[in-house]
Amino acid sequence: MRPENEQYLQRWWSGVFAIEERSLWSSVTVRPHGVLGDYPGLFVALRGEGVHVSAPADDVEDLAAHLVRAAPDLLRQDAFWAELAEERGVALIGPSTHHYLDVDPGPVPGVVVPTVEQLASLRSRAGDADWRESGFADTSRPFGLERDGVLVAASNLNAWDGLPRDVGVLVAPEARGRRLAPVVARHAASYAVTAHGLARWGARNTNLGSLATARRLGFAAYCTQLALRPA
């Protein structure tokens, strides 16, 4: 990744947790929500030696004391956060891996801009759960692959840091197993990198297919992120 984009990511993640850039990924911190506003729970990121938590203001003191009592290696284990979520009676969301790409993988010939009706049909076939999990909350910048006039795979770009750079991908159930995800995702990533210099890809660590697609396209894993919040 280009040095300027490494610095950009350092600044962005430091801003989320209101910490100095030099402390990022080398310390354990708990801070009250800043840019996350009234987020209803804990937002956590881990990389290297860094473990950072953004929490509601009235939760910071007790949570910080809890983390201090834990062994550093334990904080980097999924089981620690799963146990904490159970103690609090909330859901553990993730963990997920955030990936970034700043090299254009190149556009894909034959990719189309799907219609609202085509996207609605894809959503109906895939189901609302897959639609949400695949990152289709925002469909203002969609791309698609058709077979015989039917939309069988789509990608889109959600806003990240104010620009459409966060890649989402959804393949119709009847078309899965045909390696369509990396094709349509490549086109979205190419658009994001060409237009805005960087593309982001988030995938739950249990979604091996999505993680493999990210690697295939050249995305580099950056950090692990999870959340504890009401279900």
UniProtKB/TrEMBL annotation:
GO terms for molecular function: acyltransferase activity, transferring groups other than amino-acyl groups. Residues 101-231 form the N-acetyltransferase domain. The keyword Nuclease does not apply. Gene3D superfamilies: 3.40.630.30. It comes from the Bacteria. PROSITE patterns: GNAT. Keywords: Transferase. The keyword Membrane does not apply. This is RimJ/RimL family protein N-acetyltransferase. It comes from Nocardioides panaciterrulae.
